[in-house]
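Translate sequence into structure tokens.
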Amino acid sequence: MKEVTIYIKSYCPYCKKALALLESKGVELKIVDAMEEPELFEKIKEQTGSRTVPQIFIGDEFVGGCDDVHALDSTGQLDAKLK
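Result follows.
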């Protein structure tokens, strides 16, 4: 399975929902707290054009946020991307 990197803020309910889905898939997660690493999060915001959390990458591919990853899961595309 590909490594998943997720940029979060610990208090964010959408981050928790996305984390729960990804953890249920048994993927290896690299969790980056945007509050603890603001410089890194600034670079990611510039790269993706998105200013919110979570920001989820499967391998090097930016797949979006919480709603996006759940949409991928509902269509079966998430499992395919994780392989």
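Note: The domain at 4-82 is CATH 3.40.30.10 (Glutaredoxin).
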